[in-house]
Amino acid sequence: MDLGITGKVALVTASSGGMGRNIAHALAAEGANVVLFARSADKLEAIAAEIAQTHGVQARAVMGDMLVASDLERLASVLKTEFGGLDILVLNTGRAPNPLRATLQETEEGRWQVAYQNQLWSVIQVVNHVLPLMQEPGWGRIVAISSASVKQPMPHHSLSTVFPSRVTAYMRHL
After folding, report:
1. 20-34, 71-85, 88-102, range with the lowest pLDDT
2. 39: buried, middle or exposed (CB in 10 Å: 19+, 13-18, 0-12)?
3. What is the pLDDT of residues 46-73, one digit of tens each?
4. What are the distances in angstroms from CA 150 to CA 20, 22, 143, 146?
5. Does residue 140 contact residue 88 with C-beta atoms inside 8 Å?
6. How far apart are CA 148 and CA 128, in angstroms?
């Protein structure tokens, strides 16, 4: 399939494994240069090397936390100086706290705060730092990874439903 993204620059957050890693590979297979962003430097470097070798594109690892402003400022700087901007933003986030519990058993404020920070506030912070790079040329795409439970709630998944559904609302506002 040709998505028409050859040579575009794609940022994938939370890309040190799992879905983020696979998304980065898929974008690179379509010819996009990828920037990987997550907290695990060793994993990111290995994945970046793997992507560059497998797909023949530029792959850059940037270690950082989606909730730390200085990390996001550094990320935006790398995107601007090394790639000239950003075309595609894939917002992948961390999971809700474990163990999963029934909705009425989710009574600990700390668990709600962690879910909010990891699943909604982190998305807003990344967008605030990198969206200007997409606005300058007047072209860009944003993909926010959510949860199947947003469409159809699942038992014991309230923490992984409430904030991703707000990400969907945030995307509509953008």
Report:
1. 88-102
2. middle
3. 999 999 999 999 999 999 999 999 999 9
4. 19, 22, 15, 7
5. yes
6. 26
CB-based contacts of 90: which residues, under 8 Å, 6+ apart? 10, 11, 12, 13, 20, 23, 27, 143, 145
pLDDT digit string, tens, across residues 93-125: 977 788 888 888 889 999 999 999 999 999 999
- Report the DSSP beta bridge partners of residue 88: 10, 141
Question: Tokens 């010819």 belong to which residue?
Answer: 31
Identity of the residue numbered 104 = L
Nearest alpha-carbon partner for 126 in 67, 58, 39, 51:
67
